[in-house]
Write a structure and sequence with these properties.
It contains four helices and 23 strands. The chain is α+β, with helices and mostly antiparallel strands and 316 residues long. It folds into four domains: 79 residues; 83 residues, Phage tail protein beta-alpha-beta fold, CATH 3.55.50; 79 residues, Bacteriophage T4, Gp27, baseplate hub, domain 3 (Elongation Factor Tu (Ef-tu), domain 3, Beta Barrel), CATH 2.40.30.150; 54 residues, no CATH class. It holds the Pfam family YQBQ.
């Protein structure tokens, strides 16, 4: 359904639809090929509202950013959900506040429709971000909350309303839906790695303007250094933090980073309930996997009446 916002609304037939969501830092996107013999009779305005549903499933609500037509009579539309309007740069100044309040303010200032925002509880320290993308500031709020509390939140557009949810509240029950060798799966690629986001030594430094010295704080896992070699993460911390706060941050970072990352890519039949930020149950007997994975990226494709999806998953 396309609403040109000028009084014309069309229920458009499509030959294919691709809907993609990312857990961090990107807007949801929709690419659709429409069945139109004469597109001049059905002009689609930039900024038009586009809604995609399939039976009772409300799939996508967004805004047209691009249209194209070629010699083969393929008429294509590209649209984004509300998160696209957080891709602007500005200066952001916040006193200590929760991710819930900070992100809600950013969304409200951008004129976006806000739905359910769960309370994150933790107050992120004051920040000044100059010439930064609004969505990157949102990610900083969520990263700071994750490091401090080990609670992971995701911001997403739910059919026209922004929601902030704890990922633990977004699991799809295994008795409702799971993916396995005998259930929906076509292909998979499983990987364990220490090459990305794995650190067994954390080094934090703080510049002391009073003494003119640099204070150094280190946490490390000698056993994992012996196994993997030394993998160090380095950060400068705010001069306002005291020693106890820095040591607490050290403990949380080493706990969060000092482990292998496990990722899984798979292709399977599609289910509209699955999107980036939710948990799905995976059962792969061949490699001994029987657990929930977090969806980092999800691409749904509907073409010729067949619904498939490609997922990038990780263990949390």
């Amino acid at each position: 359904m396309i609403d040109n916002r000028d009084g014309t609304v069309w229920d458009m037939p499509v030959s294919s639809v691709q809907w993609k969501t990312n857990r961090i830092g990107k807007a949801g996107t929709l690419d659709a090929k429409l069945v139109l013999e004469d597109p001049t009779k059905f002009p689609i305005n930039s900024g038009a509202v586009i809604r995609v549903t399939d039976g009772s499933y409300k799939i996508f609500y967004g805004y047209v950013f691009e249209t194209s037509f070629n010699a083969s009579s393929d008429f294509s539309v590209k649209a984004y959900d509300q998160l696209r309007y957080l891709m602007y740069n500005d200066t952001f100044v916040f006193s200590a506040t929760t991710a819930t309040a900070g992100i809600k303010k950013i969304a409200a200032d951008a004129g976006l429709k806000i739905g359910t925002f769960e309370e994150t509880g933790y107050k992120v320290p004051a920040m000044v971000e100059d010439n930064k993308k609004a969505l990157d500031v949102v990610s900083k709020f969520l990263d700071s909350t994750l490091i401090a509390t080990n609670r992971n939140y995701v911001l997403f557009d739910n059919f026209g309303s922004l929601e902030l949810r704890n990922i633990n509240n977004m699991a799809i029950r295994a008795d409702d839906f799971y993916i396995g060798e005998e259930s929906l799966l076509f292909d998979f690629d499983y990987k364990k790695s220490i090459d990305d986001e794995t650190y067994n030594r954390i080094k934090l430094v703080q510049d002391n303007k009073d003494t003119g010295k640099r204070e150094v704080y280190i946490a490390q896992d000698s056993a994992n250094i012996a196994k993997w070699g030394r993998l160090q993460e380095f950060r400068k911390v705010d001069e306002k933090m005291n020693a106890a706060q820095i040591k607490d941050l050290l403990d949380k970072l080493i706990k969060l980073r000092n482990r292998e990352t496990k990722t899984l890519k798979l292709n399977c039949l599609g289910h509209w309930k699955v999107r980036a930020g939710c948990f799905v149950y995976i059962y792969l007997k061949k490699i001994g996997i029987k657990q929930y994975f977090l969806v980092d990226e999800c691409t749904h494709t509907w073409e010729g009446g067949v619904h498939t999806m490609s997922l990038e998953l990780k263990v949390i």
